[in-house]
Structures are given as C-alpha cells and as structure tokens.
C-alpha cells in the first residue's frame, strides 16, 4: 500500500495494519476451510454407497439329509457381490447442530486472529509517537542551530571590535558541530522507526512524510471493548453447541437401506446357481443406556465453560488495573507539562539577560551557551511530555478497546 499524500496520521496506520499485515490473510484461509468443513458435514445427509465383493471356499456346506429330494448340494466355492445404499432419515438434528458448531468454530478462529492483530496496535502506537518525538527533537535542534549561527556572527563582530576574547567564537562553533551530530543521529533513528512502522502497516512512508500529531480525548468509564471479550463469548458459545451435540447423541438414528447383489448362492441357500437378489428395509440405532457417559461429557464441558469465565474475569481485572495505571500516567504528564511551561518562561528570561551581558562582554560565551542549552533542554522536555501524553492516551484507548 502506497500512501500518496505528504502527511500521515495514526488512524491511517491502524487501517494499514488491519488491511496489510500478513496475519489478515488467515481470515480468507479460515473462510475457505470452513466452507470445506460444512460441505463435508452436509454429505452425512446424502446416500452412502458401499460396494462389497467376496469369493470363498468352504470346507463344508449345508446339505439336506433326506434321500431322493432332488436338491443339489451347494458348491464349496461361493461368490457374492453386493451394492448397498444407506440413507439417513432421522438423526435428531445432529447434522444441523454440527453445522452450527462448525460456523462458531470458524468465527472463534477468526476472532483469535483479530485479537492477535489488535495486540499489535500498541506497537504501532510506540513507533508512531517515537517518530513524533524524533521530529520534535530535530526541529528543536534546528532552531537552536539557527540561533547559535546568528549569535556566532554577533560574536565575531564583537571580536573584531575588541569587545570579546579572540576564542569566543570557537565555543559556539564547537557547539554547532555537536548540534549537527545530534541532528544526524535523530534522522538515523527516525529512519529506523519509519522502516519498522512501514513493515507493520504495509504503507510506503518517506522521510519527508509529515506525521500529524493526534489530540486524543478519553473517557473514564470502565466498559471494556476489547476483541478478547468477543473471543470469550464465542468460546462459551462453542462449548454450549458442543453440549448440544453430546445431548443429541442420545437420540435414535433412523436409516433406510437397500442392497442389491449377484452371487452363488443367492438369498435362497438351497439353490446352487448364480442369482441376483435385493433387500430393502429400515435400520434404527439407539443407545438406550450409556452408563452416564453422556452426562459426564456434558459436565466436562461445563467445567471448560467455567474455566473460560475465569479467564475472562482475570482478563477484565488485569485490563482495569492497566487502565487505572495509564490514567494516572496521563494525570502525571499533565502536571509535568504545566511545570514545564513555567520553567520555559523563567529560563527565557535568564537567556535574554545573558544574551545582553554577552553582547557587552560581561560574561563568557561558555556561560551563555550553558543557559541557552538549559532552555532548549527544558523546551525539549516539554515537547516530550506533550507527545508522551498523547501516547499515554492512545495506549489508554488501546487497552480499553476504544480504537478500530
């Protein structure tokens, strides 16, 4: 997937993950598998044909021990070929129940894929906001570089006029080299992050692509919308349908059958020649007593359902704990941002004072650089806290299941 515009946002990354991550292909495979399984189940309602042929030699045969009856004794070698058709007439709804179970199994498997895919979204969050941090850091370095370059020209002018020491410009030049090095490192880190994000989302992302800053809002209600909840529901539904099939195994099965054959002897065992024959009838199978096996099987499935309910309870508890922790992280970052704003305001006043003093040679260039560095570090921390706040909100929404 190629992203044609020059900007990208977090929602687009989610959409790319949902559409392009290799795991998504399993949905199509599972649907094809389900169609095949359903087709196989349907064949249980179709006539079943069985061909049987045998040739035997018997050491003894049936004879009529009455003289002068004219009944010829059977041959010791005997032959028979039959074709039998069985047609299921009644099975207590087992076939329909098996189809329903198979559809639920398919939905459960697809939901497992959805859960695995959803769990990758926190990784997408981390990559996306790490790129934003690198962008903010690089922009701040660029501003610092521009300000120092401007100040370098002033310092050189001061040196020429004898107001500043001859080596004053060297301190700024060294600092500019450090900034260039930091910008290069930030760009390298951003490139690695972009490559990873592109791999996850299947989106073609360039270094020049602008990443939009999301401004997310959260609500503090505790309703979990995670796909795992849907998975637990499907697992319980699957067990209930298994119990239904187990219960139906107690019901009788009625089949009609027809057998046609050719052999020597035929159905008349006293006629010693090849004859064709047929048999038609009904067959009923009913296990009227199973030593409570059926009941025990359903009890085992009840225990499985209780285990799933327990897993869901643990999942909800764990996620609520994570939501509370994330909410506290959000509140902490809000407080930090408020303090950052105050620190930036104070440090700007200090830098303005030092800038005037540097112009008149009251302080050294190193002293000015120290205070300017403090300002940019404070501004960088402010940017970090803002981005971390949005990341914390994105993670909160992800933990809650409030994203698509």
From TrEMBL:
The keyword Cell division does not apply. It comes from the Bacteria. It is found in: Cell outer membrane. GO terms for molecular function: efflux transmembrane transporter activity; porin activity. The keyword Transmembrane applies. GO terms for cellular component: cell outer membrane; efflux pump complex. InterPro entries: TolC-like. Keywords: Cell outer membrane, Membrane, Transmembrane, Transmembrane beta strand. This is TolC family protein. It comes from Paucihalobacter ruber.
């Amino acid at each position: 997937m190629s992203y044609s515009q020059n900007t990208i946002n977090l929602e687009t990354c989610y959409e790319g993950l949902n559409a392009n991550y290799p795991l998504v292909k399993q949905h199509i495979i599972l649907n094809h598998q389900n169609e095949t399984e359903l087709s196989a189940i349907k064949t249980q309602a179709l006539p079943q044909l069985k061909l049987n042929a045998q040739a035997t030699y018997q050491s003894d045969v049936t004879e009529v021990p009455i003289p002068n009856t004219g009944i010829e004794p059977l041959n010791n070698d005997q032959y028979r070929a039959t074709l039998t058709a069985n047609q299921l007439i009644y099975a207590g709804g087992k076939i329909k129940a098996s189809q329903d179970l198979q559809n639920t199994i398919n939905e459960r498997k697809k939901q497992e894929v959805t859960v695995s895919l959803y769990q990758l979204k926190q990784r997408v969050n981390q990559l996306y906001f790490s790129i934003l941090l690198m962008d903010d850091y690089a922009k701040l370095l660029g501003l610092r570089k521009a300000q120092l370059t401007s100040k370098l020209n002033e310092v050189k002018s001061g040196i020429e006029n004898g107001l500043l020491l001859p080596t004053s410009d060297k301190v700024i030049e060294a600092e500019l080299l450090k900034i260039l090095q930091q910008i290069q490192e930030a760009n390298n880190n951003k490139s690695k992050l972009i490559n990873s994000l592109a791999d996850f989302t299947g989106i073609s992302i360039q270094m020049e692509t602008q990443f939009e800053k999301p401004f997310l809002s959260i609500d503090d209600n505790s309703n979990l919308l995670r796909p795992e909840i849907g998975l637990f529901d499907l697992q319980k539904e699957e067990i209930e349908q298994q119990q239904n099939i187990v219960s139906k195994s107690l019901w009788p099965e009625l089949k009609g059958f027809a057998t046609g054959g050719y052999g020597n002897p035929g159905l008349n065992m006293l006629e010693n020649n090849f004859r064709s024959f047929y048999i038609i009838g009904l067959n009923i199978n009913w296990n009227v007593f199973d030593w409570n096996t059926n009941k025990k099987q359903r009890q085992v499935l009840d225990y499985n359902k209780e285990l799933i309910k327990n897993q869901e309870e643990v999942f909800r508890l764990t996620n609520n704990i994570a939501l509370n922790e994330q909410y506290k992280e959000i509140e902490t970052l809000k407080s930090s941002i408020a303090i950052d704003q105050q620190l930036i305001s104070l440090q700007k006043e200090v830098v303005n004072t030092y800038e005037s003093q540097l112009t008149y040679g009251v302080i050294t260039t190193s002293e000015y650089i120290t205070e300017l560095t403090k300002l940019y570090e404070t501004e960088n921390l402010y940017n970090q806290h803002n981005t971390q706040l949005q990341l914390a909100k994105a993670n909160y929404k992800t933990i809650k299941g409030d994203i698509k």
